[in-house]
Amino acid sequence: MPDMRGRPLPAEILAALKDPSITSWLRTQALANTSAESIGRYPGVGAAQNDNFPYNDNVDNNSPAFIDYVLPKNFQRIVSARLSIRHRAYRTYNSFTAVSTGAETGHSHSHNHGSHAHTIPIDAGPFANAVGQNAAGGNLADAYGPTTAPVNGTTPTTNAAGSSGHTHPLTLTGALGVTEAAAPVNPGTTIAFDGVDQTSALGGPWNSDQVEIDITKFLSTAVSIWHTVSLQPNQLVRMVALLRVSYYVDSRLAQ
């Protein structure tokens, strides 16, 4: 039996290869190496791969953080997936102020009042051409009653040309620079994998920063397509996140 260079093996090696225990051990190792090759653990055939997918942006209760990732065609199996989350204060890069610089212009109102008048009731009295008080009812009474007398009947004028449209002069000022809101309190961050919520299964929602949450069994591993891990707080937050994925690839199929 020759060696890898075509040279005959030494006699002592040939003798050892006839030992059943050595033959059994070699067979076990050969099977183990074959299995290792199939899952990408054998040098020259498979190799370990670490990919990091960072995220750093403002989010709120309507706009979650989307951590998008793709696994390559030569992906073999996942080793681990860890997610770290940090909640920072919401941040913007400019500020605006508005100041009124004068009184309103073109501002008037119109009011329409209907015609109206007031009258005083006068009862009939027992006297002629005279006015007196009716003892029974307390009203005025004269010889020509019962009747009523007008008091200052008027028809008011109206302003038909008025308009409610008007303007206010304003001065707007914008300035570049970093402006931060208050630090988030109890943001209640939830997590979903390709749209499937797994918050409770992972021990969430989270109100504090997290380091290396083990999400291995929830991470989607179909190759050559986009996957999304989404983080949803309940308020304005600047979300800092890092998805770290460790897996094996078949180096013979490297693309």
Question: TL;DR?
Answer:
This protein has 255 residues and is mainly beta.
Structure keywords:
3 domains, four-stranded antiparallel sheet, 2 helices, 10% helix, 255 residues, 43% strand, Jelly Rolls
What does this molecule look like?
This protein has 255 residues and is mainly β. It has 3 domains: 1-38; 47-90 and 181-253, Jelly Rolls, CATH 2.60.120; 116-157, no CATH class. It is 10% helix and 43% strand. It has 2 helices and 14 strands; from the N terminus they run ααββββββββββββββ. The strands form 4 sheets. It has a 4-stranded antiparallel sheet with strand order 1-14-3-12. A hairpin with a 6-residue loop joins β6 (131-133) and β7. The radius of gyration is 46 Å and the shape is rod-shaped. The chain starts with 10 loop residues before the first helix and ends in a 5-residue tail after the last strand. The relative contact order is 0.30. The model has no long low-confidence stretch (mean pLDDT 79).
